[in-house]
Amino acid sequence: MSAGASIPSDGAVMAVDKLSVLSKQRRILDGVSLDFAPHSLTAVVGPSGCGKTTFIRTLNRMTELTPGLRVEGAVRYLGQDIYDPTVNPVLVRRRIGMVFQRPTVFPMSIFENAAFGLRLIHEDEDVIDAAVQESLTRSGLWDEVKTDLDRSALSLSGGQQQRLCIARALAVRPKVLLLDEPTSALDPAATQRVEQTMERLKQEIVLVLVTHNVGQAARVSDRLAFLHAGHLVEIGPTAEVLERPREALTQQFVTGRYD
Amino acid sequence: MPESPSPDSSGPPESRQPVPPAAAGVRHILRKVVPYVPALIPLGLTLAIVFTLLYESHLQNFGWAFFGFNFADYGIMIFVVGSFLTSVPALLLAMLIGLGISIASTTYLPRFVSAWLDPFVDLLAGIPSIIYGIWGYFVVAPYFGVNVWPWSVMHLGWIPGFGRAQFSPAPSGDGLALAIIILTLMILPITTLLMRDALRSVPRDLWESGLALGATRWEVTRRVAIPYAKRGVWGAAFLGFGRAIGETVAVAMVIDQAQKLPLNVYDGTSTMASLIIETIDSAFILTPQGVLYLRFLTELALILLAITLAVNIAGRWIIRRTFTEVAGI
User: Fold this and answer.
1) What architecture (CATH level 2) is domain A14-254?
2) Chain B CB contacts of A104 below 8 Å
3) Under CATH, which architecture does the B65-327 domain have?
4) Which residue in B229, B240, B226 sits closest to B192, CA to CA?
5) What is the ipTM for the molecules in this complex?
6) Using one digit for the tens of pLDDT, what is the confidence trace for A92-118?
């Protein structure tokens, strides 16, 4: 991934082009094309098994960790296909961060969790100190943990843990952050805090949110993509898709009449 | 008690008779007491063993010489040292190799390969120690005596303990180093098994989070998976150590039994367990010396028991502490 790459003229940080993912048995994703503009939050919704988790995992080559999956098409990050054989997946993942369904803090202190990605690239101690504070502030956790950064991260509540995971991903300054149902294991109050964090972050970087919760998508996203059985059925500004869906399937799903 | 699940109440309704109050009381007591019987077996067994050892030893007072190095004065230190000299290096080796095997199996090998290789670890864990002993005695010892030790004396002789003043005319491979090797192989399966299961219990999304931050598999293993599996690693260490220090037959077969401290790694020595198995016969001679020696051996057995228990308790304590650390409680 060339360091000098900038946002191409068409404005998309990331562009997905005719993306298909195939397992031995079936096509999980079939010819999905869409792109992600800077400073935006795109929510991907759809029923269980529609391929939305697979979709978000193709965006930073996490699909490769599942044996037997084959990816076709291209995912361009700043114009470069991340599936190009010359591209190192480790470097892709440093640029394109990810947060998972369940909080996945590591068994170490809060500080070390946030510093994890920076330690991998052997940053200086003072750089790490500053970056940890900055990323915890961006994820909205700093005020709650600033006095006990040395405590085990596992002592935090679920919602705090999830915001720590967001901070950990932010610390390496990714331009894109992928969120795979980040609030599905959280209670309503913690969900609200994470949603606030997402709304703040979308002003800085590209966020891609997979969620099964249409209400959440309506609250935080700028654009809404509806996936069904591996196909991208519809994508557009969130309010438009929710109020005037073009497709019958979308209509059924967003009004909760899907079965 | 009409609802009590007594045999009467399970019969047809017409034959149901009220249980006499006295019988109900007995049942009630039995129900309370019976669960204690199997539960108390381990405690009873422990007490019986300790009591037998204490009784057989007659708490014979051997004086301070007991904690000395002079076997002729009934000193135990040679054997205590011998036990630690064999089990500690064996444990370190088995932990290192076991960690390597378990990391390879859980992280690097394709799943179908590890699915084929893993059962062999489980299989090895079940091999009786006498078989390791025979194999060590007839196969490994002669090979090491002829091929490996001469090489190591020549090339590693500068390391203290690895040199030897002279070769014996017919080099036997038996001795401290061979006992360590056989012990390592014996406890390797159990340490590998426990560490492998601990590493396998690391949640998949924790792994992926590490990789999603741009870590390599090795970085995730070292910084996330092993710390997460710390409890299992400690458990493997303590269980392995318990096995190593208590192992008797296989060690006795390959240690080139001698009641002295070893001069170098090739030399013969004894562990607490191997001394007991080697000399228990002479303790049954009905002479005053025989009686005294039997008491000496039982007291040595008590010391071995105490060391094992102490390691066990320390292990539990460390594992509990590690667990609360990991759980953040």
Assistant:
1) 3-Layer(aba) Sandwich (3.40)
2) 203, 205-206, 208-209
3) Orthogonal Bundle (1.10)
4) B240
5) 0.87
6) 988 899 999 999 999 999 999 999 999
